[in-house]
Amino acid sequence: MTKILLVDDDKNMLLQLERILKSNLENLETLKAGDGKEALKLVKKENPQLVLMDMQMPGLNGLETFAEIKKAAPKQLVIMITGYGTTDTAIEAMKLGAYDYITKSPDLPEILLPMVNAALRASEIMNEVVVLENVTDTQNVNLNVRSIIGLSPKMQEVYKSVGKIAGTSIPVLLIGESGTGKELVARAVYHNSNRKDKTFLAINCAAIPETLLEAELFGYEKGAFTGANERKIGKFELCNGGTIFLDEIGDMPMSIQAKILRVLQEHELERVGGTETIKVDVRIISATNKNLQELIAAAKFREDLYYRLNGIQISLPALRERREDIPDIVSYFLKRFNYEFGKNISEIPTRTLEQLKKHEWPGNVRELENIVKRAVVTTTGPILQLNLRSAGAAAAETARETTLRNQAFDPATPLDALIDAAADSLLERMLIMPEDDPERRDLTGKLEKALIVKALHKLEENQVRTAKLLGITRNTLRSRIAKYGVQ
Ligand SMILES: Nc1ncnc2c1ncn2[C@@H]1O[C@H](COP(=O)(O)OP(=O)(O)OP(=O)(O)O)[C@@H](O)[C@H]1O
């Protein structure tokens, strides 16, 4: 038996709603309340699956009643009914966690039924929920610093290896599928090394065309080629004393491989077009999702370079090989995105978690991260509404994100094109969002906040460098950090 509570001071409205619902839903019991107090009593006593409530009522109004209901029964699904021109308060209610709202209009029956059906399905799923521990407690976590999550035996092997080489400068080779956390582990190696106070630079070898890559890594002298109007210092030199992370090393062209080998063996290099030999001391952490042995057999990768890079090899397991870590990873991302999007989601339906555990995760943790992020953005209320049917969409998003990241790495991509692409995907989302969705508000502010949070993360929370990177003064940066409440 499905129970729906109807709340309105207008008796005719109550009867109209009852008629619409009863003629379309089977096994339905309707409860009726004429004011907020009575509604609250019935919610506590009858535990209905759904409440349909008018916003304007004498005594306790809809919003106040809603707040009381949420106190008494936090998981209660409520759809608010508003008159024309009062959508503002409906949006308030949505922000407080109402499931949805509907405007009184002649086509109410057509809109009401699909909405009620969807809400009833949601209520069914939400009846089984897992309460995630401490998800809303962000007190003791620094969410700007990315943590590596997972206590499965395979991940413990990873931590053990990172621990073993802490304090050394041995080259590290990270292997694993895309999205398994290779860059994250590279940063962990760096943070635990005796070079942690020196520079860390990351470069994606696959994203940069051969000639530019050589110039990026080794620098060039003025006049080395057309367009080389000034001397440029390369990443190895900039990183002297520090750590460089060469991502997608399997895509490194043969011509550059020889030069990298020389850095590893002799600790020296020459700038493009230069004759001076420059001494460098750089720790190399490299990563690949390709099979380097196969590349060696195909004469696409130097065997001697492989042995040099492979001081210690750390293999990152695919997410499907450590499914037991999925609940912890999900609650970590929930915590992070609750914070980032100002949400308060603390529960996840058991069925959803089971689905997530069974999924194949071709995009690994990055794919899971995108799915949770999308769900957090679209969820109202305390229970995560995640739809794995949109996994295809999430995978497409992962692919788009990867392309965008690769383009971003390519200095030949004009900055305007990147800004354009980011604005495009933002607008695509807005086109499918309701016009009065509160998420739409202050987009430019949110963009600015995201830029600042990400820049601080990339630059190891160094405010001086972050301000410089963003082209603002340190004072402006400080005031923005305060304004947006960046931790
Ligand atoms: N164990 C983990 N715990 C928490 N977050 C993780 C974990 N592994 C990966 N992530 C997150 O997933 C995303 C992808 O991770 P990362 O970039 O390190 O993967 P990758 O293996 O270097 O991928 P690619 O090969 O595509 O460059 C990042 O946002 C990262 O923070």
From TrEMBL:
GO terms for biological process: phosphorelay signal transduction system; regulation of DNA-templated transcription. The keyword Transport does not apply. Keywords: Activator, ATP-binding, Cytoplasm, DNA-binding, Nitrogen fixation, Nucleotide-binding, Phosphoprotein, Repressor, Transcription, Transcription regulation, Two-component regulatory system. It holds the Pfam family Response_reg. The modification 4-aspartylphosphate is found at D54. Its main location: cytoplasm. One of its GO terms (molecular function) is ATP binding. Residues 148-377 form the Sigma-54 factor interaction domain. It comes from the Bacteria. SMART domains: AAA, REC. One of its GO terms (cellular component) is cytoplasm. It is found in: Cytoplasm. InterPro entries: AAA+_ATPase, AAA_lid_NorR, CheY-like_superfamily, Homeodomain-like_sf, HTH_Fis, P-loop_NTPase, Sig_transdc_resp-reg_receiver, Sigma_54_int. Residues 3-119 form the Response regulatory domain. This is DNA-binding transcriptional regulator NtrC.
